[in-house]
Structures are given as structure tokens and as C-alpha cells.
């Protein structure tokens, strides 16, 4: 396993990203829940997948169980 690289706030801001602090329980829910309806288009499904992945990654990076 590689060492975790700390987040660079300036680089993230340069990508247009913003910080979002969530309770671990909310991250766990987000990592495992998809709100897409059955008829959601692929863009919506892709966005949901990215959000679930990032929620899971945030838990992992913080050392909390997913």
C-alpha cells in the first residue's frame, strides 16, 4: 500500500472543488446508497457513482471503517 498524500487545498480549489465536512455515519450512508430512479440516465448514474466512491475514499483515508 502506498502512503496517503495529504489533500492540497489550493490544488483542490484550482479544480473548482470545495470542502465538505460530514459525519462518518453520513459518509457511510452516502457510500452505500444510490438515489437514482430506475429510469436515470447514464450521466446521473455516473455522478452518483463518483459521489459514492468519494464518500468511501474519505472514510478510508481517515482510517474509519466503511
Element layout with pairings:
Blueprint: H1 9-14, H2 24-32, H3 42-62
- Helix segment count? 3
**Which blocks of ≥5 consecutive residues have pLDDT under 50?**
none
Largest sheet: none
H/E series, N to C? HHH
Q: What is the helix fraction of residues, given as a range?
A: 40-55%
Q: Determine the strand fraction and express it as a percent band.
A: under 5%
* Anisotropy-based shape: globular
What is the alpha-carbon Rg in Å? 14 Å
Structural commentary:
By secondary structure, the protein is mainly α. It is built from three helices and no strands. The chain has helices spanning 9-14, 24-32, 42-62. The longest helix is centred in the C-terminal third of the chain and has 21 residues, at 42-62. The relative contact order is 0.15.
Overview in brief:
The protein is mostly helical. 55% of the residues lie in helices and 0% in strands. The chain is globular and about 40 Å long.
